[in-house]
């Protein structure tokens, strides 16, 4: 169907490397993840000049050095409409065809400038406008625009129900699909899906899952996202006596969540890699996703010298 956008069935989220040394290890991870044939590799974004440059450099690496499709995160907080236009045009010129439209986290300083767009839905509308202006270079095709969704109430939101209305608004503004914030229990995703469908959200909602291999990471994630650590997972990670055991616990938890989400009708899987590709690869191996695992064994053999 002309203009239709297939939802990603498998995507990985990467942080742009902060220096050359980290870049080498991220590029190595990318090579290994590539062998699982993901639909997208998403690249996180932050509006500070240094972080923006790092995101753009990683996207450029993906486009020029790999066969992977980048999914460029873009945040509108603290940005002018004009600077966002320039970035979206730049993405299109680079060959990026997938954008995750986000507001971003508000500045710590309450007096800090929040930018021209208070909410992500305005960014979606801007992306659609720029897309129309570039219809010729897109050959009539469209950008795949994803958005964030929340199995737990967003920290600034008055209620979970309000978040569902916000998601509906994003759909009306032109979002093609949503990716969830991290969550730790199958019923979190199930509840989001049911509430969203009841409210009229019909876009695919992809579960965002993270294999966590340490309590420190779990707590750091909670601080970043506002999602409370699951006490059973926290206890298991704390009680484990070796890194290998913690790794196994994190992978097992992520696999169980993904299986439950697929049972609930999830149209794909987004793995937050935290740039720790080993956990994500183990999740994929255990899930035996069609099209992914067959090449994975070869990849491991090639990279491990087996
Ligand atoms: P919005 O949808 O705009 O919502 C923000 C808040 O405003 C919510 O509380 C919402 O309820 C409220 N709201 C929205 N619209 C209205 C309205 N019309 N009226 C009243 N209230 C409203 N952050 C980064 O900085 N970089 C990243 O790369 C990044 N990647 C992410 C990837 C995923 C998959 C997810 C789930 C999150 C990501 N984030 C990232 C975090 C995200 O930027 C934050 O969660 C941010 O606080 C909210 O972004 P949003 O796009 O959901 O905003």
From TrEMBL:
Catalytic activity entry: (6S)-5-methyl-5,6,7,8-tetrahydrofolate + NAD(+) = (6R)-5,10-methylene-5,6,7,8-tetrahydrofolate + NADH + H(+)
GO molecular function: FAD binding; methylenetetrahydrofolate reductase (NADH) activity
The entry's keywords: FAD, Flavoprotein, Oxidoreductase
CDD domains xrefs: MTHFR
Cofactor(s) for this UniProt protein: FAD
Pathway given in the UniProt record: One-carbon metabolism; tetrahydrofolate interconversion
Alphabetical list of InterPro entries matching this protein: FAD-linked_oxidoreductase-like (IPR029041), Mehydrof_redctse-like (IPR003171)
UniProt keyword Flavoprotein present: yes
GO process terms (BP): methionine biosynthetic process; tetrahydrofolate interconversion
GO CC, any one term: cytosol
Listed PANTHER family: METHYLENETETRAHYDROFOLATE REDUCTASE, METHYLENETETRAHYDROFOLATE REDUCTASE (NADPH)
Family indicated by similarity: Belongs to the methylenetetrahydrofolate reductase family.
Name the UniProt record assigns to this protein: Methylenetetrahydrofolate reductase
Organism: Glutamicibacter creatinolyticus
